[in-house]
Amino acid sequence: MSEQEKINKNMKEKQGIIRDLIILGVISIVTLTLLYIFPDKKEPVLSTSWNFFIEMMLILPAVMVMLGLFAVWVPKDIVVRYLGKTSGVKGIFLAIILGTLPTGPLYIAFPIASALLKKGAKISNIVVFLSAWACIKVPQEMVELQFLGVRFMLSRLSLTIIFVVIMGIFIEKVLGWKEVTENGC
Amino acid sequence: MSVTAILINGIAIVALSIAFIKDKEKTIQSLKIAGKSFIRILPLVLVIILVIGLLLGFTPPDQISRFAGEQSGLWGVLLVGAVGALMHIPSLLAFPLAASLLENGAGVGVVAAFITTLTMVGIATLPLEIRELGKSIALLRNSISFVIAIIIALIMGAIL
Known about the structure:
The complex is a heterodimer.
Chain A: H1 3-37, H2 42-73, H3 77-83, H4 88-100, H5 106-118, H6 123-135, H7 138-148, H8 150-182
Chain B: H1 3-22, H2 24-58, H3 61-68, H4 73-86, H5 91-103, H6 108-120, H7 126-133, H8 135-159
């Protein structure tokens, strides 16, 4: 990362923090005003918020520790290194595993996927990798387990994996046909 | 403390101990990242918690279940799925929000649609995705992901 990029990234982060604090300020004022106008709602609103706050604080530090460990121990280029040249069932399997490991929001995964594309990785692998990154993160599944229970979490996880693999193969086929027709064959 | 919370903290402690034995430096670096991310997400955690409090305090359950309950059917799933696709919040915060809706009369399918579109479809990040991966892949991935999310939601609604 160059100096200029680092400065840009820092600025973006600062802007993000300021935006979040403004949102928090607005929502606090809205809450206070509403509770002042409807004093009988004070008890249900505050006790609900408090319960969710406690439930969140019981797991959030642990989830963040997992995120930190992944961020340091799983280098981002590992994905490009392994996924660039693997195909078939093994490739799809690897795409799911690698997608679940590294951390960060989806937009961090786009440049990685782009590097994979340039390296000639299979499109099905790239799509499966992106989707796995988006919705099958290990720390994320822990939070889902905490709030929505094991049945909900496992059903959604297995259905997602099945459909994501189908989507990856489908998109690869569609783009393949497009290429064939564009080349006039 | 629930079993799940104990399990999650247990896993984190074990992982941290193994990491510490393997490489002290790297582990301290991980903890610094963890601390920073925790502070970074805290304002939004408070926002979501207040939103949940207001939502449940002021909207009667029958109102929530009319818009997003089991009987809202395909339209409820599509509507909430679209909201999820447009929203741009960390997915970690989507789960408490989803749980609060579920506790107050929203259907399982609707909640599954919300979480799945929120994580897989990104309207806000679509321009970036098009720039990095090209129009065909980005548009196909987002539109098919939306359809998939709806199918997953309908299946979840039927089996749970």
